[in-house]
Amino acid sequence: MKKNLVLIAAMGGMLWSANEAKAQETTVTDVVVEETVVPVQQVDCKTYYTPGSWKNNWFVQLGAGIRSPFVENRVNKGGDDSRHLTAIYNVGVGRWISPYLGFRFSGYYGSMHWNQGTTASARVANLNVDFMWDMFNSIDGYKPGRVFSIVPYIGLGGTFVDHYSPVKGNIVDRDGKIKSNQWLLPVSAGLQLRFRLSNYVDFFAEARASFYGDNFNNESYGRPVDIDLSAIGGFSFNLTGSQFQSYNPCDYVEYLNNANAKINDLRGALAASNAALAAAQAQLPCPEVTVAEVQATNVTVLPTVRFKINSAYVSSEEMVNVYNVAEFLKANPGTSIVVRGYADKDTGSAPYNMKLSERRAQAVADILTGDYGIDASRLVVEAAGSNSQVYDKNDWNRIVIFAMPE
Question: Is the full-model pTM beyond 0.90?
């Protein structure tokens, strides 16, 4: 019985080995195409604003108003305890680093009067560094055409007070003499009301409270803090106009989706090519392949430059396309190109879009000539406006296209 079992096992092993060998001779290696999953990153569809160049959004302000110091008052019997109002003059320079935050250097000069047994006076020069917050833009969102804004601010500064008249007080110098001047470091806070007159001029009215130690009027007693209240009005001049460049990540989602669709198409074509290659390798030897010569053409593919809505500003992302065209022109010194601007038809009127497309084309041409040294005679600047649309999708027509002259 044992002998029969051994014989059966041996025969089974021989048959299994034969089938395995046959399978190895006839098996064709399968082609495995690995598919890489591209993760989709969720983006916040929020518009961000930047002043662009450091030269943008600087302003100069000029103003005048009144001040009243709140210091210790000594009143003779039957005297007057009223606060004395005097004139104050203001000049400042600053910059809005975003639609919400800004800073400025603001200087003030003028006299101040107060009661010190008799009417006393002094001259005050002050320089502040103010940090400003546009309340309306922060709460209601940035609107370029906003007419009215409320701007709270806080400041740190330095103050020089001299020409005390009469020279009274109880603060003395090292020689025991009553001081004739004071250096002070105030902290201040205020509120500005801003009215937009044009893109370059604003009218403002603001109030400021400056807080000093108990030596503002050269006299120290009573409460430990002296306060200087001022109210001024004037004009603010925006040197480059009030302008911010906007950017929204979702503006490029459709471009990315189209690119991903093309990638997926290429992956499918690659998988089909690999399958066809594997099938061809399985039929070796291959038949003789005839090589067909493809005649080269003189067609040159040039990039395009895209723009934001109602803008002729070439963004940093699009500068690479202008650079590539400049390199092409340098490598082909005998070649000229057409710089043709377009505008989308769903925004603005046809006459306005014609001028906008002209500004876009001219902006690109200026970069080619100014930044890359391309001779202007090699550039044909054209404006197509919105009457002619290159693409069916409206937003894609905010472009400048480079073309070879016909």
Answer: no
Residue 316 CB partners (closer than 8 Å, separation 6+): none
Distances (CA, A) of 271 to 33, 35, 226, 370: 6, 10, 82, 48
Helix-then-strand count for the chain, H and E: 5, 15
In DSSP terms, 125 is beta-bridged to 109, 160
H-helix segments, 27-123? none
| Rounded-to-integer distance, Cα 287 and Cα 175, Å | 113
Helix axes 319-331, 350-370, angle to 10 degrees: 60
CATH tag for 48-246 (out of 2.40.160.20, 1.20.120.80, 3.30.70.20, 1.10.3210.10): 2.40.160.20
Strand partners, 160: 125, 183
Picking from 353, 366, 350, the residue whose alpha carbon sits closest to that of residue 314 is 366
- CA 346-349-352 angle, to 5 degrees, is 120
pLDDT at res. 44: 67
**DSSP states of 162-231 as a string?**
EEEES---S-B-TTSPBPSEEEE--EEEEEEEEEE-SSSEEEEEEEEEEEEETTTTS---SSSEEEEEEE
Cβ 149 vs Cβ 136: under 8 Å: yes
Alpha carbon distance 51, 392 (integer Å) = 32
Give pLDDT tens digits for 46-81: 777 777 778 888 999 999 999 999 886 554 444 454
Q: Which two tokens stand for residue 330?
A: 């340098």
- Tell me the domain boundaries of the chain: 48-246, 299-406
Per-residue pLDDT tens digits for 221-252: 777 888 999 999 999 999 887 777 776 777 66
- In the chain, the amino acid numbered 353 is N
Give the strand pairing for 148-165 and 119-133: antiparallel
Check residues 339 and 269 and name the one with the higher pLDDT: 339
The CATH code of the domain at 299-406 is 3.30.1330.60
